[in-house]
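COMPLEX REQUEST
Ligand: 2-phosphoglycolic acid
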Amino acid sequence: MFVANWKMNGSSQKVENWLSSISSSQNLNKCIFCPPNLFLEEAKKIIKKNNLDISLGAQNVDPDIEISLTGGISPSMLKEIGCNYVIIGHSERREFYKESPELLFDKAFSCLEKNLKVIFCIGESQEDRDSSKTKEKLSEQLRLLSDLNLEDFSIAYEPVWAIGSGKIPLLEEIADIGSFLNKELISLGQKQDEITILYGGSVNTSNAKQILQLESISGLLIGGASLDEKQFLEIIG
Ligand code: PGA
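STATUS: Structure written out below.
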């Protein structure tokens, strides 16, 4: 599984160019394209017109709650527009929008109710890493999943210090965290064949293949490098 997280980048023209450039890949069916919400409809039209076997995902969603919410976008709206996936818990949203575990739970719960698959991001900060608290921090972030049905849940392990920095953990560290998360997810009630653990944070054409070879990692969440169609194509193979 390859998630292209465009963050706050792109335009409708770029969506069109990007989709046409990657359309010949044999692995298109393993890709989830997450442009800004504003371009999802345009992307859906192009995907439909050209019969492309790629999934669409949103970078954010609001929970279905009984209040009026100016600017809100609900899971059913995303579903209607053709999304099957949503990214929840990205560190940029936790940090800049102060998204709390309670809010993340409500978002995830609302998505699962509408059959939207959740890509749930977790990761330790540089400070957590320096004080050997990585696993403790990850377990804490996973805790809110204990009351959710995890059938349609993937986890993206994204060390906060690795995002956009050009730095990644050692491969052994990623492998170790992958196995650790696998055990944690089993203890939270997810079945082994439902578990998908992705790695994200400075994935590029030079490190992607090695990360993908790790047994505990089944995909990549790609930010910066997904914007360049040549790099993205090389990563997905
Ligand atoms: P990056 O971003 O690949 O640019 O580091 C990853 C992400 O946060 O989605």
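REMARKS: Residues 171-187 form the longest helix (17 residues). The two ends are 12 Å apart (CA to CA).
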